[in-house]
Amino acid sequence: MKINRINNLNSVYYSKNNAKSEHSGSVKYESNSNVLSHQLNSLAYANKYMTALSFKGALDSEEKNFKLNLNFDELKRRTSPDNFAAYTLIDENNDAYKKLSQGDKTALKHLVKAAKILEEVYLVQDNPHNIEFKNYLEEQTLKGNEQARLTLQLFNAQKGINAKDIEGGSVNLARGIEPKPQRGFYPEDLTEDEFHNILILMIKKNKIAEVKKILNQRTMVERDGKYLKATDYTDYFKEQFVNAATELELAALTSSNDDFNRYLILQANALMMNNPYMDALADKKWAKLQDTPLEFTITRESYDDRMTPSVNKNKKLSAMLKKLGITPYAKDNIGVRVGIVNKEGTEYLLTIKDYMPLMADNMPFKEEYEQNISQNDNKQTMVDVEMVDMTGQLGAYRGAISLASNLPNNDKLSVISGGGKRNVYHIQMREAKYADNITKKLDAILNKSQHKYFDIQALHDFTILHENVHSLGPKNGTEKLGIYKNTIEENKADMGALVMLDVLTKKGFYTPLQQKKLLVSYFSAYVQKGPDFSNAHRLRNIMQNNFFIKEGALSVDDNGIMTVNFEKVTPAANKMLKQIIRLQLDGTQKDAQEYIKQNAVWSDELDKIAHNIKQADSTLNARIVSPLADKLAVQ
Question: Which run of H or E residues covers position 555?
């Protein structure tokens, strides 16, 4: 499916005193309301965002003979209140929203609209049939088709045709449409072998620049005769990116914080220009934001594309790329976060910041690599956020959903060129995740003598450690792990968190009681209801839990009841962390595959625990409910 594009649009960006075209000379990236107003009027922004977007390049849904894959009874089961959990974000009665200035409330409206626009981009990236299938479901729902209505509920929750549920089962909503390694980034009929052979041919024909674009994070790839061609996101999704950029510019006109406004303008510029350096400028500015009322992030993460990293499996192609100095980067999915910064929660997060250099100093083999954090340079900001909206990849519930993020990732130009990182924590997501059935779940899986150690705050503390460890360890070179890069990185963050928990307890940051609470809470929260080997986060859970059982740090009796053996956890975590760091430094995709294969075993112990969780909690799927965002989107 092709997206309708706007041609001959003169992108505009802004300096303090002048508006300049993208062909101008040097520019200061600062906002000015009068200049912005003048330039916005000249953009002829006719396609004002309403409640949904129409992709003119898509087939009319009536022409597509979709067959719904789940029968009515199965849909009723999956969407029943007991099985379909809700992550409810803030509404207009939330204190944080009521305390905003009118200007910030107006800005928030435009940020929500930008987020809604960009979700449509994600749907195309995820699956070439998503848009037309969604249109079909909406049309059928209006005609009174109850099967379509319930299917649409699941589609909107998982944001796509294909997903996994909490138990690791496949949820495919359209018959005959299966998930593919290329998602929507490459031609649907492209096989892995053909992909490799085309790239080899293109290299032999000296189409080196195009090969580099194809293997870049920010392109969509199409056929070009016997070759392939890549189009930058800013061109492929020009209409959507320009419309979203305009909403950001409008937000910058009324937002009360100058620093935040400068970031919004930089981010708008990046959306309108085919220039990775503009993304880097926006990312660097965003990573420095600490004291702003509002939060807006375009997350660009590469968890789903398995086609691009597959080139690492082809020895001939890998050697050719290495000789040319071309690193294959998995493609970025678009996700968006909109929120209001919670000052009290943010102050709590910042208490750990001064300990980041100490944590970096305790990473294994630290002399062998560069880290994002050093003794003299702590480029890490962090905020706690009242969530207004989560769209695109960030808001897709596929067996799990994000509680926080540490961005930009190491493959981004901003980090490569010396920029910092920023942690953002999602208040409503963590509150909802552990709101229901927790006592029943603990009874089902945890030794009663250790129930006293389970604590919701401890889970937040573990998430804080996990996200901060993403800033530690090898900064560069992990792309060679291919499709396993993300699993290994998430594994590192968890094991690093457990090791640093012990380091910080010895320094007095945590008490011994807090340490026990974190350990019990971690193990209780990160066992799961079924095997899912397709998701980096859930795969690492299987690996870690199985490893801890083998190391004696976690005992499981015949009834599936766990006991945490406190004295054995840190040595086991440290052992696994060392293995992970060596993989990131020296390993190949094959090495990572063998490491995962060795540890990712769905053992009898894990199966017994999973059985008990299922008895205590019937949830299969979940969805985001965003009352404030839904209201603002149509104003």
Answer: strand 554-556
